[in-house]
């Protein structure tokens, strides 16, 4: 007896574009982390791959979907292209904040796409929003651990919060009946705006102060 294959629901052109953009930007941020460590091209490629597909892999495993980069080689190729671009360009082309800005763009795009994909597979909107956060954050967490840097989870800056804004707003707008492309664009821009302001102004959440 054969299992019924799981098919990928139609997501839409805007969300597919967000997935591609998010994959490339996160992969580039992973390659930049390798560049800061002056690693080899192999390490560049590995950092780019695990950063670009890490969050989406965990999401797909949790929602019972085919792992996206296993069934379609395009995301993995996108990651390798991002690594090659960073490897071939001079270090002076990348500012010290380049990783933060690439990460901010990728975070917003991935959070929205992750929530949308989870909803397309019948996941409750509230849980789908959490899947969006997983999609947006796990790749960066893996990157930081590999690079020996403090995980973003242990820093007070608005990172997970920005992903939650993008994913949660998208899910809420879809529940309210807003068209998918409009909901995706509004949610992604909102999450990116919050993350951008946090980077620019140094905003962060207060830490635990109880004695």
TrEMBL record:
Keyword Transmembrane in record: yes
Entry similarity comment: Belongs to the UPF0126 family.
Key words, A-Z: Cell membrane, Membrane, Transmembrane, Transmembrane helix
Lineage, highest ranks first: Bacteria, Pseudomonadati, Pseudomonadota, Alphaproteobacteria, Sphingomonadales
Pfam families with a match to the protein in the record: Gly_transporter
Residue ranges of domain Glycine transporter in the record: 17-89, 101-173
Family annotation (InterPro entries): Gly_transporter
Membrane topology note: Multi-pass membrane protein
One Gene Ontology cellular component: plasma membrane
Transmembrane segment boundaries: 12-34, 41-62, 68-89, 101-120, 126-146, 158-176, 182-203
Domain of life, per lineage: Bacteria
Chief location: membrane
Name the record gives this protein: Putative membrane protein YeiH
The keyword Transmembrane appears for this protein: yes
Coiled-coil positions: none
Subcellular location: Cell membrane
